[in-house]
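Thread title: Can someone regenerate the structure for this chain?

I was given the following input by a collaborator and told the matching structure tokens would be attached. They weren't. Posting the sequence so someone can regenerate them.
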Amino acid sequence: MALVKYNPLKELRTMQDQMNRILNLSWNHDLPGEDIKEGLWQPAVDIYETADSIVIKAELPDVDQKDIEVRIEDGTLVLKGERKHEDDVKKENYHRIERYFGSFQRSFSLPTTIDQEKVAASCEKGILTITLPKREETKPKQINIQVK
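Best answer:
Regenerated them for you:
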């Protein structure tokens, strides 16, 4: 068995990093181009681009689909909803509650290359997938070169 030197300050630094992250989220320092308006928690998102579209995937476990709202207004995609706490277990019976409950709202500025009329959203296994297709004129086109 290897001996590991105990560093009591390591746990304090970890706690300080977590507090800084929470404060930065509440003051909107870490999220450029994103507006956090309300809510105690924010669902984690992945945003990536394909040749045809931009895709946003948001983690929304235990959020009922009827409690999720996705809309576009003034070139901004707004994702809004609520995760409700289960009422079938009494609060005094819990040993630990680490998940966040309540309302959330995230918004993302959309590029002008998005075809807003063809935006689609689907939810499967707690993952909300929003597909933002690009306009035809903004997609890269391959030009064939003829050899003479």
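The chain has one domain: 33-136.
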